[in-house]
Amino acid sequence: MSDLAHIGHVELLTPKPEESLAFFRDVLGMEEEAHEGQSVFLRGWGDYQRYSLKLTESDRAGLEHTALRAWSPEALERRVAEVEAAGLGLGWIDGDLGHGPAYRCADPDGHVLELYYDTERYSPPEGLRPALKNQPQRYLPRGAAVKRLDHVNLLAADVAAARQFAQQQLGYRLYEQVILDDGTEAGAWLSLTIAAHELIYVRDAYGVRGRLHHLAFWVDTREEVLRAADVFVDAYVPIEAAPSKHAVAQGFFLYGFEPGGNRIEVTTGGYFVYDPDYEPVVWSESERARGQAWGVETVHSFHTYGTPVVPGDEEVVARTPVYGPS
Amino acid sequence: MSDLAHIGHVELLTPKPEESLAFFRDVLGMEEEAHEGQSVFLRGWGDYQRYSLKLTESDRAGLEHTALRAWSPEALERRVAEVEAAGLGLGWIDGDLGHGPAYRCADPDGHVLELYYDTERYSPPEGLRPALKNQPQRYLPRGAAVKRLDHVNLLAADVAAARQFAQQQLGYRLYEQVILDDGTEAGAWLSLTIAAHELIYVRDAYGVRGRLHHLAFWVDTREEVLRAADVFVDAYVPIEAAPSKHAVAQGFFLYGFEPGGNRIEVTTGGYFVYDPDYEPVVWSESERARGQAWGVETVHSFHTYGTPVVPGDEEVVARTPVYGPS
Amino acid sequence: MSDLAHIGHVELLTPKPEESLAFFRDVLGMEEEAHEGQSVFLRGWGDYQRYSLKLTESDRAGLEHTALRAWSPEALERRVAEVEAAGLGLGWIDGDLGHGPAYRCADPDGHVLELYYDTERYSPPEGLRPALKNQPQRYLPRGAAVKRLDHVNLLAADVAAARQFAQQQLGYRLYEQVILDDGTEAGAWLSLTIAAHELIYVRDAYGVRGRLHHLAFWVDTREEVLRAADVFVDAYVPIEAAPSKHAVAQGFFLYGFEPGGNRIEVTTGGYFVYDPDYEPVVWSESERARGQAWGVETVHSFHTYGTPVVPGDEEVVARTPVYGPS
Amino acid sequence: MSDLAHIGHVELLTPKPEESLAFFRDVLGMEEEAHEGQSVFLRGWGDYQRYSLKLTESDRAGLEHTALRAWSPEALERRVAEVEAAGLGLGWIDGDLGHGPAYRCADPDGHVLELYYDTERYSPPEGLRPALKNQPQRYLPRGAAVKRLDHVNLLAADVAAARQFAQQQLGYRLYEQVILDDGTEAGAWLSLTIAAHELIYVRDAYGVRGRLHHLAFWVDTREEVLRAADVFVDAYVPIEAAPSKHAVAQGFFLYGFEPGGNRIEVTTGGYFVYDPDYEPVVWSESERARGQAWGVETVHSFHTYGTPVVPGDEEVVARTPVYGPS
User: Fold this and answer.
1) pLDDT, tens digit, for every residue of D255-287?
2) D271 contacts on A by Cβ (under 8 Å)
3) SS (H, E, C) D165-191
4) Alpha-carbon distance values, D150 to D106, D219, D231 (Å)
5) How far is it, in rounded angstroms, from Cα A80 to Cα A115?
6) Which of B280, B284, B196 is nearest to B246 (CA)?
7) String of b and e for B231-251 (b: at least 16 CB within 10 Å)?
8) What CA–CA distance (Å, rounded) separates A288 from D134?
9) Chain B residue with the nearest C-alpha to that of D243
10) 3-class SS at D96?
11) How many Å apart are CA C182 and CA C1, to the nearest integer?
């Protein structure tokens, strides 16, 4: 098993910081935990650390980094050594709000990762304390009321290289895969736990390196995903893909674009992998082309759009239907 | 069929107007449509009229009146004549915020009813306009987010007399009934439509006249009722009966007390009565004693407590468990 | 209000009687109540009459007739007189299994209707008796476990004429409508009750008369619709439209084809119309083109295919993706 | 992290083998995978091994053994060595239908455990093959349609001793705990993964050793738990606790008794533990006395009854209300 426990948080970039903040706070229902410089730190009501999303103003959309928490100081050291040996290390930083020293590195596709162990657990202020003591914060019935950051989907020019790095240097397990007819790898679904996916690599249609496909936030039920779609509609959020069930990993999804242009998923469902010898499920090109689990055809932009936005895709979000009040 | 269409609104009394308002607005998620004198007018996002709840400051809890909308001016006249002939008329009033002239009367148990036809439809301001034009207001993801007032349950010293009045003078249909072993009537579930209940009379355990058992607000799914229980818990709302399924009428329920002491239900489910010759379902004393549909025993206070509160019941709400943050 | 209460049953034609029966029994989970000649009579667990679906072998798919139950013998006579006066009467028949004398007529588009009052209520045999006495039959957890027939959607060459007939001769209320830019009517959603739709007319893309768009069967929750999609997939049922929410009437849907070629919907949701003066919601051509409530584009065949199948559409069902076990 | 991966299966004893089989097959919806001697091997549609439940005829109810699958042959050896060193080993057996050699041992309370690694994956026959290749078997819409065995709850005379064994010898993590005012331990919730509980020890009210509290089977949604309650009711299954939400571990539950007398739960929900340094949540006696998450009082038998049944408890199941057809 892995030395790493889970994705602790991500830093997301947005050229429209106020609109993006309004989206995460009012539409997704996250809580502002802290502000610092050009960044706002946000949390779902079920996140055990202070935040899972650092939202930072920038001139472009995209992901600044993904932070992975290790199981222990020793586990952290082992992983740092692995990554350094692979020539992908970038060096230590002192830490950030809410966590201690972190080792910055990059996957083969250039996505920046931070590995850390020391962290601050969330301590709710009066008014946000939960009724049930096994819950970090009270449930906040605002917007889609997402519980926590669930998974990160990264575009990669070379999926196989990125996936191998995740398996070998980071210790991820591979659960599902898409292999095209020419033998190349179009997607890889990876996890550190029994959850069906926590880190996904999908081929970048433009061959660009280091881009984000989407961030996914968890809700506990499919009904909440359906409800989130109603919330999106009335809040003018462009819906790229209405709620349905993925064939790969069987997650239940809703995809939309936050005002900064980043693709955001509200997700639940999927299955658990209890089998120690689980053989990755491999989907062929034709199987993948069949669409989602109930036959929903995947929209074109889902296969191409990512952030930062590449030339030619500037209008993708603007062309996505918005059904707000007319 | 009936000349009356549905319960248009109720006027609820509360000795704690600010706390009660906070409950309906923040916990149930209703919208304040207007203020006038000692009253606040509130609406669910699916109410087609301006409001369904008039919340009025008073020295005691309870229901001031229940307002029933007629199908037409002529239908209204017919019902007024029926009620007058029965000697239960109280006379016309000029109307109130949001509706025109109304005829006040009382059922045999002394509950005040108002019959009216002229009404104002809701016109949402900027910011509350819906994306879908077949919806009066945008969905507001706040608190339990109730859609509309669903039904009213009145305590009656003489259930049979009240039920007969509802059938004969008002034109309600009787769908379910509880008849005790001694032949007396302990409950009657009545409706003007295919919905399984819209007006309920239940025996007042103290033999007091004119009291309220509960108001019920509708949500579209059972998941929303479960979610409302989480919302209640974190908001310190005393839960009298956790979510489960009624045997009678098969409604899915959650019961709690608003700060003024009135019992409030969040409800969904039930069945539709399409049969023109529907024979009322009669439950015996022993069948009723079996509890709810899945065997949940009915809590004692549910059979006794109502508003206004009678001497001896002052502590019922205070003794109901509250699971807010400790 | 209307003299008619509801659609009591339909007679559906199928060129593949055994496969169709297997679909309704095992996939939808209906119960075989009786067999007679080339027909099987099926019921949902919530139907109060003996059956809601008469499935009859034929050389083609389509609807033989739709049977409407009147509120009383007098109401039936009134409606028969209205229909006869409109020149659309076909005459009385003695009745059929489960119901008494019925008056056959046709709407202006040629769909055969039967108006009747006398009926047999369902009496469950040992093994199908329900635990709750306000339910006609025990819940049968088989397949999608549909509760009852919900609505019928008929294609019409002249929607306006059919809709006016439904309003004037039959007494339906009009709740929603699609009016194209050229002023013609493309769809009408009609109801006898507070339910948002019970009878729908939609324009026949080929201008053919008397065809069926789909039959819809009710389940109580959206979760059951999602579950039905899983059931369809594993049973090789072609899914024309995966679960999502309609903009018009806000029903939650799943559309597939039964083996005989008829389109079948599993449905729930929608809203109730309590307003006596409800103004029909009118959707324009461009509003309709926006797709379903969450932006799902309507599949082409949904606008064209019906039964009996017209030349050129023979391959529609065969081309609809089937995701059964490979 | 642990050398053990998960509970692979359990062997449950029943004095009423035919009725128990009918319960697991028709009410829970499991599939009979094999028969051998006095045993039937059953599986949920999501179990990756051939079975998760071995149901064996016996003169009494209870659990024969719980089988735990190791991550690897080496991991298995390490755990066997630990258990032997603790003096709790019983020795190797050759294996059983569906798995290879297993090491039998007992926890300090006398519950028999089997540790194994070699296993047979499920290979569905024609008719049970799934549409989605990441699922071991097609979804079978029969009864409650449970997906897989989820967790096991064991009664223990000495909870602390059993819990320490699970942590130290087996490698379980402790997530929640009940500590009474006298300092003794009344319950421990343990897991090998991020799932909130997989193995539970609860104090045996009679101080008897080696008894079973309940087996829990997983469904993916709360709606399915509610639906299972309807299925139980119509199938005459005694419901000990209607669907609601636990405070501890936040699981959503339904408890009933199978015909052999063993307590069975249908469960979903709960939370995931991603924190490597998770501090067990400790509930005090008074917190535990508050009942379940929404205030539902825990029924008395839930604190006392287990299998094998002790003298004095023979009537517990018979006294539990059954709501089948009257």
Assistant:
1) 999 999 999 999 999 999 999 999 999 999 999
2) 46, 134-135
3) HHHHCCCCEEEEEEECCCCCEEEEEEE
4) 21, 9, 20
5) 8
6) B196
7) bbbbbebbbbbbbbbbbbbbb
8) 13
9) B244
10) strand
11) 32
| Ordered DSSP codes for D223-254 | HHHHHHHHHHHHTT--EEEEEEE-SGGGEEEE
Q: What is the ipTM, given to two decimal places?
A: 0.96
Question: In the block, which residue shows the tokens 């201690």?
Answer: A100
Give C238 to chain A, closest Cα distance, Å.
Answer: 9
Angle at D63 between CA D61 and CA D68, to 5 degrees: 165
Question: Could you say which of D254, D296, D323 has the minimum Cβ distance to residue B242?
Answer: D296
Which distant-in-sequence residues (6+ apart) come within 8 Å of B207 by Cβ? B157
In eight-state DSSP terms, residue B257 is E
- Please judge whether C242 and A243 are an interchain contact, meaning their C-beta atoms are less than 8 angstroms apart: no
CB contact under 8 A, B139 and A223: no
> Tokens in use for C257?
């084809």
> For residue A1, is pLDDT > 70?
no
Contact criterion met (CB below 8 Å) for C227 and C144: yes
- Three-class secondary structure of residue D21 per DSSP: helix
In three-state secondary structure terms, D23 is helix
Residue with tokens 């960044």: A39
Residues from B contacting C (CB-CB < 8 Å) are 1, 5-6, 46, 48, 69-72, 121, 132-135, 176, 193-195, 220-223, 247-250, 269, 271-272, 274-276, 278, 281, 283, 287, 293
Straight-line distance from the first to the last Cα atom of chain B, in angstroms, rounded to the nearest whole number: 53
Q: Distance between CA D316 and CA D312 in Å, rounded?
A: 9
Instruction: List all residues 6 or more positions away from C269 whose beta carbon is below 8 Å from its beta carbon.
Output: B220, C222, C245, C250, C251, C252
Place of tokens 């931070």: A114
Q: Give the pLDDT score at D326.
A: 61
The first and second tokens of residue D304, run together, are: 């006392």
In C15-120 the beta strands, taken as DSSP E runs, fall at 31-36, 39-43, 53-57, 62-70, 89-93, 102-106, 112-116
> Rounded to an integer, what distance in angstroms lies between the CA atom of residue B189 and that of residue D89?
64
Q: Is the pLDDT of residue D34 over 90?
A: yes
CA distance D293 to chain C (A): 23
**Which of helix, strand or coil describes residue A290?**
coil
> D272, D278, D287: best mutation site toward chain A, by most A Cβ within 10 Å?
D272
Partners of residue A218 on adjacent β-strands = A148, A267
Nearest CA in chain D to C229: D139
**How far is the C-alpha of B52 from the C-alpha of B58, rounded, in Å?**
19
Give tens-digit pLDDT for B134-171.
Answer: 999 999 999 999 999 999 999 999 999 999 999 999 99
How large is the greatest C-alpha to C-alpha distance in chain A, in angstroms? Answer: 58
Of residues A194, A220, A275, nearest to D193 (C-beta) = A194
